[in-house]
Amino acid sequence: MSRAAAALDSWERLREAAAAVLLRLPTPLPGLCTPAALSPLLACALRLLACPRGREADSGAQLLLLILRKYGGAGDGGCCWRLDVARGEVEAPPAGGSDAQQAQQAQRAHQAAALWSYLSSACELLEQRVRLAEEDMLEACRGGLAQGVLLALR
């Protein structure tokens, strides 16, 4: 039994190390330079987030947080794309002004809008999961109920 626990622990450390390496790479990541290219990765994170098994839900939450830090305005020097996790959509902000001061102000505004979009859509996804549980608890539990969303909001 202790070997199985050690294997689980090593998976956690491996995921954390991979995320740390990806966060050090330039933003946007190669091959994920457009919202359309990032959408399948967001969909994968959302599928994992809805998994009833805690380990998979946690990996989906960690992937979602990595996407947020890299693309959603939560990291330093990242993109400020709007991530709507309730609908599984990604949207890039419009181009900023040409003046350096205007560009900096636009960057801060886009960052705040991107973070708000993530938080509000994650809360909306949580509300959807709760409504589903009120209607059909068995079906809600098959889809992970709310544990993945709560892990992503921590």
Report on this model:
- It is a single chain.
- The protein has six helices and two strands, in the order αααββααα.
- It has 154 residues and is mainly alpha-helical.
- The radius of gyration is 17 Å and the shape is globular.
- It has one domain.
- The two termini are 29 Å apart.
- α2 (35-49) runs antiparallel to α3, α3 packs parallel to α6 (147-153) and α4 (100-135) packs antiparallel against α6.
- β1 and β2 (89-91) form a beta hairpin.
- The protein has a two-stranded antiparallel sheet.
Secondary structure layout:
Layout (H helix, E strand, L loop, with lengths): L1 H23 L10 H15 L4 H18 L10 E3 L4 E3 L8 H36 L1 H6 L4 H7 L1
Antiparallel strand pairs: 1-2
Helix pairs in contact: 1-3, 2-3, 3-6, 4-6
The percent of residues in helical segments reads 55-70%
How would the global form be characterised?
globular
Order of SSEs: HHHEEHHH
Physical arrangement of strands within the biggest beta sheet: 1-2
Name the assembly state: single chain
Number of helices: 6
Structural class: mainly alpha
Mean pLDDT over the residues: 86
For the sheet with most strands, the description reads: 2 strands, antiparallel
Number of strands: 2
The total tally of domains equals: 1
Q: Uncertain regions: pLDDT < 50 for 5+ in a row?
A: none
Distance between the termini: 29 Å
Strand fraction: under 5%
